[in-house]
Design a protein that fits this description.
- By secondary structure, this protein is α+β, with helices and mostly antiparallel strands.
- The protein has one domain (7-128): 2-Layer Sandwich (Nonspecific Lipid-transfer Protein, Chain A), CATH 3.30.1050.
- It contains 6 helices and 5 strands, in the order ααββββααβαα.
- The chain has a 5-stranded mixed beta sheet.
- Helix 3 (76-85) packs across helix 6 (115-128).
């Protein structure tokens, strides 16, 4: 099993993201381009990053100082809970409000208010569940 957000984990996540029409195709319709990092709360830098062009992840792996549009942080325990159990829109709002999910970079409010982005964002958590941890 690959360690959460390791280089191997991120590469599998990229494959799963690109296979999921509710994420990749939905974001392609928005011409969505972004660098999204994932990490553990309290660590100096994120562990992994995906580079998205027109909704599709073009590269993924260990974070190496890339400029970020989004940097999502949570405890290892919370990541594992959301990855294995999924997360819905209400649970996501609660996680953000209670500071269990933090955006070190990026505007959660702007994203969540746009249903065209919010749906794929929530779905991306279930896509993470397809990656063995």
């Amino acid at each position: 099993m690959a360690e959460l957000f390791s280089d191997d984990w991120m590469k599998i996540y990229m494959e799963e993201w690109n296979k999921e029409p509710e994420v990749a195709e939905a974001l392609a319709k928005l011409n969505f381009n972004s660098n999204i990092a994932y990490g553990i709360e309290g660590e100096d830098k994120p562990r992994g990053v995906i580079i998205i062009e027109n909704g599709k992840v073009m590269s993924a792996g260990t974070y190496n100082g890339e400029e970020l549009n989004w940097d999502l942080r949570a405890s290892q325990k919370n990541w594992e809970k959301w990855i294995t159990g999924g997360i819905g829109m209400a649970s996501l709002g609660m996680a953000y409000a209670s500071r269990k999910l933090k955006f070190a970079v990026g505007d959660y409010t702007k994203m969540i208010k746009d249903p065209r982005m919010a749906g794929p964002f929530v779905k991306s958590f279930s896509v993470m569940g397809r990656v063995a941890v």
